[in-house]
Design a protein that fits this description.
CATH class of the largest domain: Alpha Beta
CATH architecture of the largest domain: 2-Layer Sandwich
Oligomer: single chain
Length: 255
């Protein structure tokens, strides 16, 4: 069963290079008062989130590095996703909702022939089915079912809250969880390459879209099941991942 809550502790050696207590990792960076004041006045940082990091890992690392408290991100990326994470500091945290409302672009892959409880690889594939009958024509025809405004059921293992408790916590307790469907919009859904059982895609969508759910629903529509096996966010509005920098690169720029 997926354990999203413990994902950070499970991968803390990958993130911080230590197996010790890293809840508040020590950052040995001397930053000038002028630099701190500039971050407090407000900056928008384009960060390329690494694999295995939670979005809050990035925020925490930057917050500790620039030594101000007011730091936030404009849209969560799951630990198994990489790509563009907009981080706002100081007074610019007021801009977060504006960025979150903007159109997003993702690239990634869907693996056919099985499903997972989390709709991605944070849990083990199950319900294995044969996908030999799936053709290119079927794949391209199925894409049209997901274009435009559609209703999407979010994953049970998500941070959406029910009475103040994240759904994934309820699911881990074995409680029955039924997320409410949401209206979302898929503006572009391009099949980039097919190497069965893997389908590579590019999606342009509205805020609130779960690409994990899109992968799950796409596999279900094909009749063989599917799950998200790779995801990278490439755009938020006019901001592009090509203009983003890694966390280490950002920290080095402070020195």
């Amino acid at each position: 069963m997926a354990k999203k809550e413990t994902y950070f502790s499970k991968h803390k050696a990958l993130i911080h290079g230590t197996t010790g207590n890293v809840s508040n990792p020590k950052i040995n960076i001397k930053i000038s008062e002028d630099a701190k004041a500039a971050f407090a006045e407000g900056k928008v940082l384009l960060i390329d989130k690494p694999l295995h990091w939670t979005s809050f890992d990035v925020v925490r690392k930057i917050r500790n590095s620039i030594q101000i408290k007011k730091v936030g991100h404009a849209g969560t990326l799951d630990p198994l996703a990489t790509g563009l994470l907009i981080v706002c500091t100081g007074k610019f945290t007021k801009k977060i909702n504006d960025y979150m409302a903007q159109q997003k672009e993702y690239t990634g892959s869907i693996t056919l022939g099985a499903t997972t409880p989390t709709y991605d690889l944070e849990s083990e594939p199950e319900n294995v089915k044969n996908f030999d009958a799936i053709t290119l024509e079927m794949i391209h025809a199925t894409v049209s079912n997901f274009l435009g405004e559609i209703e999407q059921l979010p994953p049970v293992y998500s941070a959406i809250k029910k009475e103040g408790v994240p759904l994934y916590q309820l699911a881990r307790r074995g409680e029955a969880v039924t997320p409410e469907p949401r209206k979302i919009r898929i503006d572009e859904f391009e099949i980039v390459k097919v190497q069965l059982p893997v389908i590579y895609f590019r999606v342009v969508c509205s805020t609130g879209t779960y690409i994990r759910s899109l992968a799950q629903d796409f596999g279900q529509a094909l009749g063989c099941g599917g799950y998200l096996s790779e995801l990278r966010r490439t755009k938020i509005g006019d901001c592009k991942v090509e203009d983003a920098i890694g966390v280490d690169q950002f920290i080095q720029s402070l020195q």
